[in-house]
Amino acid sequence: MNIDIKHxxxxxxxxxxxxxxxxxxxxxxxxxxxxxxxxxxxDELILDAANPMRLREDVAVNDKFTRNELLKNAPHVQxxxxxxxxxxx
Length: 89
Hints:
The chain has helices at about 5-10, 20-35, 65-70, and strands at about 75-80, 80. By secondary structure, it is mainly alpha-helical.
C-alpha cells in the first residue's frame, strides 16, 4: 500500500518538511500494518462472568466554584455572560 503523506498533510492542514516525508511514511505504514494484524471481532458482546464490569457511582458536585470565579477565566464577558464570535449570519 502506498501512503501519500503529502496528500494527508494537505487534508489535515499540516506542514511537513520534505526531509521528514520518509519518516512519516514509515510510521504511517507501521500503524496500518498494526491495524491489519488486529483480530476480527464478532458482533456479539462477550462478557466475562468472573470479572464483571463495575461502574463507579456518579456524584454531582454543587457549588464547587462560584459563577464569578468561572467567568474570570473567560476572555470576554458582558452582562455576566460569555461573549463568543458570531458564527452564523
